[in-house]
Amino acid sequence: MSDLFGATASLAFDLLVRTVPVVVLGVFAAEVLIALRITDTIARAARPVTSFAHLPGVCGTSFMMAFLSSHAADAMLMDHLHNGRIGRRELLIAALMNSFPGVVMHWRYLLPVYVPLLGTVGLAYFIILMAIGLAKTGIVMVAGHFLLPAPEGQDTALPLAVGGRGSGWEVLDAAWQSAKRTLRRILPIMIPTLIIVAFLIELGVFDAISSYLSDISTYFPVPVGGLSIIAAKFGSFVAAASVASALLVAGEITGREVIITLLVGNLLSSFVLALRWFGSFYIAIFGPRLGTEIMIYSTVLRDGITLVVIFLLAWVWL
């Protein structure tokens, strides 16, 4: 029992160190950008996206931030919500759109593994992942276009700051005071949630779910040799790529079957990943109710598109 609590404390500390500072910086950065009226300048790059989705300009700043840090980007959205700059439905649409930059930036981790191990097959798999992410974002943009009212005026950014900027220290102090009000709402939920998630991980709850889900893979168009890739995928994408590479070189599985199998592994493991990191990301930042909604919408959209792609590849790519 003492080992369990010790491991939980270590993992919880690691999650807190990796998550809380980024969220604090994200909220503070949002307030600084708004105080300096820089949001319009940054948001211009994302204006075609936010304008079509009927989102205010401040959401464009968050979208661009998501290319650097998804935690900071979503913390910005919560700051905008708490300060009345965006509404609840606007936050839902913006948060779902913020997932695409995160998918794009995965190239830093995926390409150095998949391309050396799988060659053109690995590159094709990565391109398909990007296409799935793009399709998801497109669907969300269309939903925003029809569900949200069009922003009034030509400038989609909301006028937030009033009066002069003041000195640099005054701006920073005002931004920090505003950020603290938002952090008082976020951190009391985030910290205990991260601790609970760490405890469940060390207790083996998510590993048990992974073991159960790996058996469901027999219902998908996956060759017998591909089952070992799916089992490895529940451990890590590096292990899955390594197993797939060995099978591909040995001629036991084709490039097409590797891609389909990896996609099935993504589909099955996404449920576990959503649960495992649900607390350390969605609930921790957005709160229980809003975080649950965003997680469900995001997972259903991504997995639904992935499922369609899997069967299209199985039936069309012969």
Which descriptors would you attach to this protein?
transmembrane; mainly alpha; membrane; 318 residues; single chain; MJ0871-like; globular
Number of strands: 0
Helix content: over 70%
Mean pLDDT: 80
**Cα-atom Rg, whole angstroms?**
21 Å
Stretches where pLDDT is under 50 for at least 5 consecutive residues are 154-165
Assembly status: single chain
State the order of secondary-structure elements, H for helix, E for strand: HHHHHHHHHHHHHHH
What is the count of helical runs? 15
End-to-end C-alpha gap: 53 Å
- Count of separate structural domains: 1
Class derived from helix and strand content: mainly alpha
Strand content: under 5%
C-alpha geometry: globular
Largest sheet descriptor: none
Transmembrane segments: 20-38, 123-148, 186-206, 226-251, 258-279, 294-317
Protein name: Nucleoside recognition protein
Keywords: Membrane, Transmembrane, Transmembrane helix
InterPro entries: MJ0871-like (IPR038880)
Please explain how this structure is put together:
Keywords: Membrane, Transmembrane, Transmembrane helix. With 318 residues, this protein is mostly helical. The chain has one domain. The chain is built from 15 helices and no strands. The radius of gyration is 21 Å and the shape is globular. The N and C termini lie far apart (53 Å).
